[in-house]
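Notebook B, p. 112. Complex prediction, attempt 2.
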Amino acid sequence: VLQLTLAVIKPDAVAHPLILETLHQKILENNFIVVRKKDLWWRRKDSESFYAEHSGRFFYQRLVEFMSRQGPMIIIYIPCLLYSGPMRAYILAREDAVAHWRELMGPTKVYRARYTAPNSVRALYGLTDTRNTTHGSDSTESAKREIAFFFPEFSVQQWLDKE
Ligand code: CMP
């Protein structure tokens, strides 16, 4: 049976065209169906609300800033000055999609990823524990919630019923 997950390519990976393309190919090679794909750039409030469960953690501020733009759009986009940028979100379908995407990403912490899963995306392309290339839902319930956050017009239930 097909399962849906939400996968995000974070600003650090989107900023590097070769890494972005490599990650897109990896998705296709691993037999994921790309159900929806969207490039977007969060405002601070989106970032704060998506990561609300981490508020209070020592990395919360840097995470929120990394994942969003702070000023209005008229600020010229200079990634190396803003340390942030657009991201790409996917709804992916596959058998065991949630677990499979998480396995491809590897552990959250890049240092750990390099030791325990050297071929994972985060081990290969991650920069730091915050700039760790990708995000993936950690359960089918989170997938449902996160898909609704990124793609409010999409109905998970309707899609699964059709399959
Ligand atoms: P993500 O899977 O999007 O979920 C929470 C994010 O917090 C995580 O990926 C990282 O980008 C970020 N983060 C930053 N520092 C840490 C840390 N020390 N431990 C866990 N997550 C961190």
